From TrEMBL:
Its cofactor is Zn(2+). Keywords: Hydrolase, Metal-binding, Zinc. It catalyses: 2'-deoxycytidine + H2O + H(+) = 2'-deoxyuridine + NH4(+); cytidine + H2O + H(+) = uridine + NH4(+). It is an enzyme of class 3 (hydrolase). The active site is at residue 55. This enzyme scavenges exogenous and endogenous cytidine and 2'-deoxycytidine for UMP synthesis. Residues 1-130 form the CMP/dCMP-type deaminase domain. This is Cytidine deaminase.
Length: 133
């Protein structure tokens, strides 16, 4: 996967974000091994609480389309930030529920590629299904 291509795709996608309140656009692309892409943008709400983050827009689509963690090549996240561009806590919990902790995740901010991480990096010792066993 080419970082510049991914960056361009994220920047194009983030323009679809519905952000009348924060004006902070976020885009998430889950690249699949079969070449398909699962996309999500943040969709805000006047009641604030129903706002959905880009990651939590994308992950349910992955599930609904019949895919699982074994189908995923890369998770890419863009935020309109000058800084790190970190996934929020709720999204970290959603990501680790459905995807592998070792799943590669690329973070981009408004300027550039920030770095390659894993889902588990963002939620060490996270609460998962095995904690219920
Ligand atoms: N947001 C995301 O889409 N993903 C995150 O991980 C962090 C926050 C969105 C929610 C809201 O629409 C805006 O960014 C500002 O918090």
């Amino acid at each position: 996967m080419d970082k510049q291509v991914v960056f361009e795709e994220l920047k194009k996608l983030k323009e679809r974000a519905y952000v009348p309140y924060s004006h902070f656009k976020v885009a998430c692309i889950i690249y699949l091994k079969n070449g398909e892409k699962i996309i999500g943008v943040n969709v805000e709400n006047a009641a604030y609480n129903p706002t959905i983050c880009a990651e939590r827009a994308a992950v349910p689509q992955l599930v609904a389309q019949g895919y699982n963690k074994n189908d995923v090549e890369l998770v890419a996240l863009y935020t309109d930030s000058d800084k790190f561009g970190s996934p929020c806590g709720t999204c970290r919990q959603t990501l680790i529920e459905i995807l592998d902790p070792n799943q590669k995740m690329w973070i981009f901010n408004k300027n550039d590629f920030v770095g390659e991480y894993t889902i588990g990096y963002f939620l060490p010792e996270g609460f998962t299904a095995c904690d219920l066993a």
